[in-house]
């Protein structure tokens, strides 16, 4: 049975939440250029897919995604001046995270997991969750929010396997091997490998300048090359990440978590 | 070729926007209970589908959807106290509409159409678009925003055909014949007609009370019965609505609009 | 004795609130052009007058009015581009409704009724009252807010009597028969019937465009003609509306409501 | 002819503004306890009356009043904990002043004068006007905002005449001789001198404590006694103040200001 | 031992707060031109120094200062158009006061004293403290906030001694005798008496105009002359003010306050 | 001559800014526990000191510091639940960065450099600077904002020299070798090495949990041990960092930057 709230009617959702582990995973993405070979909603699709795997594994539900994210920054996403990239301000992202935490608490959730798929979102999700959990605690609720970016759960061995020593760092992974491989595994029809621009990793300064100087972003909009990407690497990354995330959620919420197929027959 | 931004890479999106009619349609939905027979994201799915048909007809692009909407109100959506319904505050909705208008203006759009699929959203989208277009006009931009709810384009003849005299009013159409028929036509796998609760239309007072009194909302969460719904009625509603919307957009933007298959070969 | 807070000193106000039905009615208006024959504060004057009648009938007090309202929209008030129309932003209207609800709760009110006289205000009053009542409920208060627009309490029989089959719909009633008749009955010195521009009802599209296209608004600024208006119709409308409102408030607050002259000797 | 916007239709308002001195005076008051002998809206009534006199003298128009004001502070108004006192937050007051400045600029005003009748409002009106005039200047507008509290225009000779050496300071004038005398002159039907509590001026500390300690506020809610108030003193205060304000406005806007009866025949 | 939080490690701070009088004094200043003879952070330095003396006397701790303040106003600080003056908006000042009150409450403080050194800040600190103490009270906290401007504690005898009959009023004391004398006493290395411009006190109107008319501010940026300032006067002012403040704090918090050297051995 | 705005009068500041490189460096810190051996304002002191060195080298001025910063997060600063840590919300930090950028632009600065000394601040400074530079660009200003955290300019060779292979990562450097060494070099009187708690680096999870679980933070509040810290390492770190920052600023602003002692004789 589907773990995605989007596929459920309200009666089923309520029953699943009440009888399951009371965990809701919120995938958070962005609408952001990802070069000529990946779709604009790559971050949404990947956050949603990882959330689905994780929800299956721990008996959680997946909320409808937060589609639009915070502004793309030049050092991690090419910059928000690029056409197609469509972003929200900080206060809006904060408000979204804050309100959704309150709403899932109202539904009876005991844990809300923001699973982030867009580097720039993190601090704003943090602030929203911080405000909401503080407000909830003041009213006696013990809801916990968990925040994470899925790539932080790729271990060094997997990095070595996938990148063979050429891992350029997460900051310039934008539109690179990780995202391309995962998309090739999950949504191959939306990837056009023939359009990959094979540049060496971008060398961006250790500071930000605003307004951005467009010439610092590579022509591709990607910060490292996706040429090494493959569906096989994508499958591997997804499996390893899901396993590590499952352990993390299991540990954090200290429960006997069982796969959703069992808890929700 | 797809009119959905979600399916396009940034390079293609930019080219399509620059060479097309420079119109972007933003579907706006909600995550809201729609009774036991429809999924929580019914409003998103319908706004997105109507937007796609309209975009095909007028040569526009469809933005990634605004998934979460304003709070469900008891007289039009059953109330925001119900489990599953997951909503944003007014200021957040306003900020989303305001920022997206600015972002599509930055991309080079000349018209942004907010196609609303959730009754309660309208005034907040209006405020966001009003603020943004005023700010843009002060800088010399002549971007225009258009706001509409798709059901306002169902004409009386179609209402008569679909409802056979039993049209209960748009305010109580929540989870009723219109939405159910459209879903049966577009996403039959997400509808379970066997779970429809066949009540007469809800009789709600001419005022709002807050906090809501839950007993005023029917047990189904729907404000009128979907029992008369059918895929055929859905197809008819979609066709008629698309035609009326196409005329409206054509008239509003006073252009020689051609179907996107021609303008974007 | 006056039911208007504006006429009372604080000691009397406190006593009246403590010994009466603990209901406060807040009239909400606007400063908005109403054609060449009605004053700019028509909505304030009418909301205030209806509030006074209702307060007399149910034993409530009338708060000082909220004078400025939300922006006039082209399809219901001619548009906010017109000279004389002077409006507040959405967040300000929300803040006003939210704060006033809290303030009257602090005074000891058990019910706060926002009696709206300007079409465009409703959703923003709703949001303000929603936020305040939620916050109050979290602190153990059981204050209830009621929201209504007074014209929703004009029944079909009265419409038929007043309009004789020519009722154009509430959305285009701006500056039309209802408002003009009520003003003729209540404030004849502020109405100049000789300046009425007798046009057929405006035909506005089913969508909003921003910035508004001024040419869509009739030269009068009114959306339907006031030529049929009369003091007699005004008296009838006021009586019928007051009666219906009294029943509604009585029903909503489920009390033995007695006229204020009795409860507050 | 009336100088009050509230009495004018939009066509007349526009003509008056276009052909007059293009000055709009906005009276700003409060809903605040003023002891047992004065009504809750004393500040609104006085600001409105002074504005009317000033408008007559300088050829300006008077906007509809800002009725609700900033919170009453213990050292100048008794404190916001008192029943009947009904106040807005700082950000709301700022937003009101900011938006109204923009709105009157849109109408074609060249000067907006906030005539304050409630001590606590001043800094928030200042901030609103500061933000708006800065924004307007950035767009090329040269609208000027003027801010003043009317009692600052009572000269020492008049103070001596009215108080005969017992002037207690403006901070504790709340509900005292000035306001009571003006009300006796302007709205005697709303004053009940028999209810004046004749205490010596309150001795409040040189600091604020929050939450306020209610016992520091006199039982009357007034900070000085109104017993010396008289209609004659009120007339004198109104005349002198109007004269001084007229000179100030004349000087500030450096125009040949003529009484409105002449400029607007 | 230092009473300044800035000099303490967290462990020592916690111990001092827990075993002392649980009072935290927050010095609030500004970055504002103070003429050619005083540094831009004069208000910060003075608020911090007075806070230190007061903390010693009453057994409190001094928080790190709020360095930037509200906009300089022409009638009290020369105006915010002047180079060097660097100010925050009202909502930011309010947020700072609100948040700091909450933070010190979280640390276990029972009283938070905002000791203001910049005329224009007061109302915004008030609003922030008002919001925070109301929120804290709703949660059962009995934290009290105290707000004061240090010059309000200079008594008439001292004024006479220092100004010898020429006291120009606090509003035009900006960069004048008080601040210069205190700086000569406390930070003589930052004062250059040779650069004092010896003008008579500025004669500013009884109203504000925005945008400000720069020609109304004296060329020095000071509103009265500092020529009479001396280190001796500074010492006297500091001593007298500290004594009066100590009495006020002692009285307000009604405790047996002992000098910090004793309570924190 | 001092490069610190805090030491300058307004006339000197204006002259220095007008005749120098028109760069203003804003040190941004925090009030945050840094273990038992470092003062609460360590981040302010270090950001200020590095800013001073940099300003000397490139001919810039140093603004008064932003003292309070964003909430301490458990994975980079121990968490905001700890006593002594005193933080602002995200929207306040954003507003501060936004307003200061506007203020220095008004003074005539062409570049504003936010030199960050507290890990958690970065994204909020970015948002503030992004909003301000966008607004300024819309008005024709070409002011540029630069954002950086000073530790990002410590190169690998220096890390090796200082840590001898034991560098634990910047995220857990809180209260560790870098900060302690710099403080020993710059403010030895505020460091108490005898109080260092010598634990191995904290092992925090790859996610955040809110409310934080206090037991995850080491008892010291530090995330790695400062035992290896020394004044010599501090001097080395300061020199190398200043050199790298100077090159970065020189490169970014592409000017012939000369040391301030020459440009401002």
UniProtKB/TrEMBL annotation, chains A, B, C, D, E, F:
Molecular function per GO:
creatininase activity
The domain of life for this entry's organism is: Bacteria
Please give the SUPFAM superfamilies that the UniProt record associates with this protein. Creatininase
InterPro entries documented for this protein: Creatininase, Creatininase-like_sf, Creatininase/forma_Hydrolase
A Pfam family that the UniProt record links to this protein: Creatininase
Names of required cofactors: Zn(2+)
Report the EC number(s), separated by commas if there are several. Answer: 3.5.2.10
What UniProt keywords are attached to this protein's entry? Hydrolase, Metal-binding, Zinc
Say which family it is in: Belongs to the creatininase superfamily.
Q: What is this protein called?
A: Creatininase
Which source organism does the UniProt entry give?
A: Sinomonas terrae
């Amino acid at each position: 049975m589907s773990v995605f709230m989007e596929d459920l009617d309200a009666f089923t959702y309520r029953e699943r939440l009440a009888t399951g582990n009371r965990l809701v995973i919120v995938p958070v993405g962005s609408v952001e250029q990802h070069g000529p070979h990946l779709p604009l909603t790559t971050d949404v699709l990947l956050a949603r897919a990882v959330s689905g795997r994780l929800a299956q594994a721990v008996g959680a539900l997946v909320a409808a995604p937060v589609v639009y994210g915070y502004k793309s920054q030049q050092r991690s996403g090419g910059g928000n001046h690029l056409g197609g990239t469509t972003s929200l301000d900080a206060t809006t992202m904060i408000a979204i995270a804050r309100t959704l935490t309150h709403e899932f608490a109202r539904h009876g959730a005991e844990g809300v997991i923001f699973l982030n798929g867009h580097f720039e979102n993190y601090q704003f999700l943090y602030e929203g969750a911080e405000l909401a959990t503080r407000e909830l605690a003041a009213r006696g609720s013990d809801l916990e929010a968990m925040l994470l970016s899925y790539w932080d759960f790729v271990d060094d061995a997997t990095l070595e396997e996938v990148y063979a020593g050429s891992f350029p760092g997460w900051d310039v992974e934008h539109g690179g091997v990780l995202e391309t491989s995962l998309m090739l595994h999950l949504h191959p029809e939306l990837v056009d490998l023939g359009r990959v621009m094979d540049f060496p990793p971008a060398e961006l300064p250790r500071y930000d300048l605003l307004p951005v100087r467009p010439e610092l972003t590579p022509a591709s909009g990607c910060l490292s090359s996706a040429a090494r990407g493959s569906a096989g690497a994508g499958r591997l990354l997804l499996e390893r990440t899901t396993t590590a995330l499952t352990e993390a959620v299991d540990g954090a919420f200290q429960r006997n978590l069982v796969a959703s197929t069992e808890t929700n027959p």
